[in-house]
Structures are given as structure tokens and as C-alpha cells.
Write a structure and sequence with these properties.
Blueprint: H1 16-22, E1 26-30, E2 44-46, H2 49-58, E3 66-70
Antiparallel strand pairs: 1-2, 1-3
Length: 75
């Protein structure tokens, strides 16, 4: 399954087979603040939080602006 297809999408927008495949994986989302109101889109995916932060770091993004959460089952 191509997990890269999930990047840039909200978990709720993903097709059910992809959501099921991502269950238990970790996803990075940009943190909300009144100054910045980011959409809740997946910025990075990985089997561990460290893998998500590695992806963000490799893209030159500020890690302090992201949170990493484990994706729950689709239903």
C-alpha cells in the first residue's frame, strides 16, 4: 500500500482500505495556534514518532510546530 498517498490529507478523507492499513502508525500534524490555523492534514507518517520527526526534519520543517499521534482504527 502506498502510504505517501495519505500525506496532505486529513485521516477522515482517506479511503477505508488506506485508513485500515494506517491503523497503529504514527502521523504528524501541524499544531494549531491563533496566529496560524493549519488544516488538520497529515504532514508525515511512520511506524514510530521518531520516523515522523525524521521526515519533517528532512524537509527542513520546524519540529516544534508539529505533534505526532498514533492513528486509531478506522471504525
Amino acid at each position: 500500500m502506498n502510504f505517501a498517498a495519505a500525506l496532505g490529507h486529513a485521516p477522515e478523507e482517506l479511503p477505508l482500505p488506506l485508513r485500515e492499513a494506517l491503523s497503529g502508525h504514527w502521523a504528524a500534524f501541524e499544531l494549531y495556534s491563533p496566529a496560524r490555523q493549519p488544516l488538520r492534514k497529515i504532514a508525515a507518517l511512520g511506524p514510530t514518532p521518531a520516523a515522523c520527526f525524521d521526515q519533517l526534519r528532512s524537509r527542513g520543517l520546524d519540529l516544534t510546530l508539529y505533534e505526532v499521534v498514533q492513528l486509531p482504527p478506522a471504525y
